[in-house]
Amino acid sequence: MMERSFNKNLGLIWSWGDSWKEMRKYTNKIMKTFGFGKVASMETFIMDEIVYFMNHIDEIRKENNDIVLIDQIFNIPALNLLWSMLTGERISYDNKIFVELAKAADEMKDAVKPGVSPYVAFPFLRYIPGLTEHDLIMSCHKRMHNLFKVLKNW
Known about the structure:
Layout (H helix, E strand, L loop, with lengths): L16 H17 L5 H25 L11 H13 L8 H16 L6 H4 L12 H19 L2
């Protein structure tokens, strides 16, 4: 398990022991503060984002003669929903940082295929350059980490 968290006791998913218990308490407290478990407040965030998203789709349709490519169109609204719940601010759909963050997350998702990847079954394969998608995963991770640093200072 430590291999998946870069040999550190980090975050919610890859932490353990006392660190995990502390993170769980903190996360539950923060989520309750933002209305997690309360339908009305979560619903407000979601409904607001749906209105912006539908307007965005209408703009795309007007620009492209009613053609809308949906391959990554849902990533930014999902990120924006989480961002607005955490910070109370909305981000434009064409914000370069969010677009890059969504692309990096999508590339990482495509690289990590648990049922198919030999890298998941045999983690030692990551030490053989070019044999697995480990390099791509690490590249995406570094890009996302740097983008989160920018967002943190924003």
